[in-house]
Amino acid sequence: MIDFNLPYLTGDEEKHIFEAVRNGKISGNGKHTNLCQEFFENRYGFKKALLTTSCTDALEMSALLSNLKVDDEVIVPSYTFVSSALAFVRERAKIVFADSLPDHPNVDTSRLEALITSRTKVIVVVHYAGVACDMDVVMDLAKRYNLIVVEDAAQAIDSTYKGKPLGSIGHFGTFSFHETKNIQCGEGGLLAINDEKYSHRAEIIWEKGTNRAEFFRGEVNKYGWVDIGSSFLPSEITSAYLYAQLLHINEIQSKRKELWKRYFDLLKVLDEEGVLTLPEVPSYATNNAHMFFIITKGIEERSRLISHLRKNGIHAVFHYLALHNSEYYLEKHDDRELPNSLIFENSLLRLPLFNDLKLDQVDFICESIKEFYRG
Ligand SMILES: *Cc1c(COP(=O)(O)O)cnc(C)c1O
Q: What's the pTM value of the predicted model, to 2 decimals?
């Protein structure tokens, strides 16, 4: 069986975890947390980076920092993971769902302005598959309407928009190190803060509403409860594991890109024959090889293809049931139709892609897909 995903181990994780254990301090905001945060600030130019226990946590922090009032509106793509919307729903915001582009799951930025009202406070964009949304359009709207932009960059580590690292463009960027992502520590995340006016409060919210971080830097002589917050920081064990992965990011990325390119080269002919559609990367974006997906002709064909691959021992998966149609949000949605998000819900198929996948396994998967379409 070829798995859909296997979390990659660099081999250095144990060494760093043992070091954290020997240091004797394994609660959060210690040596390895700082090493990771410095890595992100230096490599991607984030003004401030705070490790969290998940991308969901980082999104929740961005929602708290946005200071929403009941019924403030937050624009979120419908075709995304639950957390992009959930974090704001918890702050009692009203979610205004946006549709995808016709030819890519990313949000159609040309149709965002029509969704803005006097109650709009935040726009959340998701860089699907690590490919950038058109951020100039988003940032221009944010400036003109005084909105906060959150980049859900869960899938977008080490990818850029017009040369700028994703997650560094909006007010906030959120990353995931869940074991299904390019860089992983089981469960983990990061909040990137790019507007310094939020840095101070972010650190307080991160540490249960206390000014503990300032206290440990010796900036105040006692610490106490000063604001709202939660326990968003991971333990040093998690950070040590993550740090080992970060030290290998270049080789991880080049291996993933090699696998991605093999898929693309082998399946291009089916795209040319018009039987399926391959992902296109706009000229303003890079591809971080987070995932390889194909667009089939619809749900019936996709189900048959999944069974065909399964018979050949290949585990391919589809995802995202459009959030505007979800059991939880359907009643609250404003009835606008979002046809493109439904196209991707019904026709997108993700193929296995992980570091230990072999090139000849990719060859075999592509052969199986060709066999399905050509008989
Ligand atoms: C994976 C993912 C998340 C959630 O990440 P966690 O670290 O599991 O909380 C959020 N948004 C998107 C787009 C994702 O792909």
A: 0.97
